[in-house]
Amino acid sequence: MNRPLSPHLQIYRLPLTAWLSITHRITGVVLSFGLLVLVGMVLAIAGAGEGYGALQAFLHGFWGRVWLFLWLLALFSHFCHGIRHLLWDVILGFERERLSRHSLLELLAALGLTCLAWLWI
Amino acid sequence: MDLKPAFRTPLARALGLGSAHSGSGHWWRQRLTAIALVLLTGWLIWFLAQLSRLPHGEMLAWLARPWQAGLLLAYLVTAGYHAALGLQVVIEDYVHHPVRKLTALIGVRLGMGGVVLVGVTGLIRIIATGGAG
Description:
The complex is a heterodimer.
Chain A lengths: L15 H31 L3 H11 L1 H28 L6 H25 L1
Helix pairs in contact in A: 1-2, 1-3, 2-3, 3-4
Chain B lengths: L9 H7 L8 H29 L2 H9 L1 H29 L3 H33 L3
């Protein structure tokens, strides 16, 4: 049976594009909270120095590195999918084979950018 | 041909901006802030790299420089606005109870506005202390 299905979440196997779409929304919400962390960093820089020291110690520690990787991954996933949205807005990349190819490309780009930024920071 | 009388001119319909009363404004601002953030993300990574390397005094002086302070200000405002627009869509899609929806929408706007303002206040302090040293 390969007839078209209504996208019922327990029955219909979501294509990659659909997974990327919901991920875009989730990473968007996550990054909104990330903005709180960024403001926290700004306040640590603005402060007397103890907060800054603690922040740097955290960033250089194991969990800080893990946290940083996950944050960057959310950021660049959202970034790469966002660029596809901008391309879609000018009606580029809607063809079926391009949709799948761009989805893979987007994932690789997000992972690559995350690793580069993570290693640099 | 439509024989029903059209009492509203096309101009009136355009002025009303449709049922959302904002026309394509939300869509357009989301895209505009997205394009700005594509450009600003590179700076954010640079900022994080500096944060990871520089001792406190040097970081303070670096961020107090006009270009860096300006870019941080641009990032905070743009990202905060972009986040508020995005969270608004998420709320509109999932929260259907009218009171809860309105409360959430007000909360997101005030909350994001507050977060950005606190960030900007911190930045002003950085410029005041780091710029002098």
